[in-house]
Amino acid sequence: MPERFAHSFVESRASWIKKQLLLQQKKHEAKQIYTFETGERIPFLGTELTLSIAEKNTKTLAYRYGETLFVSCRDADKEKIRLAIHQWYKNQAKILFEREVRILADRLDVAVGKITIKNQKSLWGSCSRKGNLNFNWRLLLAPPQIVQYIVVHEVVHLIHHNHGEKFWSLVSRLCPQYQEYDGWLKQNGFLLDV
Ligand SMILES: [Zn+2]
């Protein structure tokens, strides 16, 4: 490699790294840090629930009543509260994805296997060859249109097991704004965390 070229390569690499670091930092700043105190608001399908933490002599448990998400816990251990909230989201995700998938699968007359709720950082859904579907509970932190798009995406995979033309054509028929939602997830997916 000629020296001049090598130098400019290193330079551009350095500025790329700098850009990535800045981007990381910006992402970090945008990401909300939850303290799990009473009155704190957490996202749920395009709305927000208000947390109410109560110290009780029971095991740590989260349950919703109206727009409030109650967490009862023996001690105000943040990690236990976080896990109880995660469990609550997972239970909601199970109910919601089971229902939405069955409705769409019936409409498309396609068989569905098992539906499993996963805890992943940035994989939103997947479909196995056997027709089992996996969904990430963190999607419940996103607006409902995003959830709907992922349901459409994975159910359509039961018919087309690839990202070919036929796949996207059916996705766009069922969810005309899918590109917008896909872009939203790519940009904001990292924020879907509590
Ligand atoms: Zn896919």
Explain what this protein looks like in three dimensions.
The chain has 194 residues and is α/β, with parallel strands linked by helices. The chain folds into 2 domains: 1-30; 41-191, Metalloproteases ("zincins"), catalytic domain (Zincin-like), CATH 3.30.2010.10. It contains 5 helices and 7 strands. It has helices at residues 3-30, 78-108, 144-157, 165-174, 178-188; strands at residues 41-44, 47-55, 61-65, 68-73, 115-118, 125-127, 133-136. The strands form 2 sheets. A 4-stranded mixed beta sheet has the order 1-2-4-3. Strands 5-7-6 form a 3-stranded mixed beta sheet, with helices on one face. A hairpin with a 5-residue loop joins strand 6 (125-127) and strand 7 (133-136). The termini are far apart. 23% of the residues are buried. Zinc ion binds at residues 153, 157, 163.
Question: Within the largest sheet, what's the order of strands?
Answer: 1-2-4-3
Class inferred from helices and paired strands: alpha/beta
Ends: how far apart? 48 Å
Supply Rg: 21 Å
Return the average pLDDT rounded to an integer: 91
Indicate the percent of residues in helices: 40-55%
**What is the name of the CATH class of the largest domain?**
Alpha Beta
Strand content: 15-25%
Put simply, the count of helices is 5
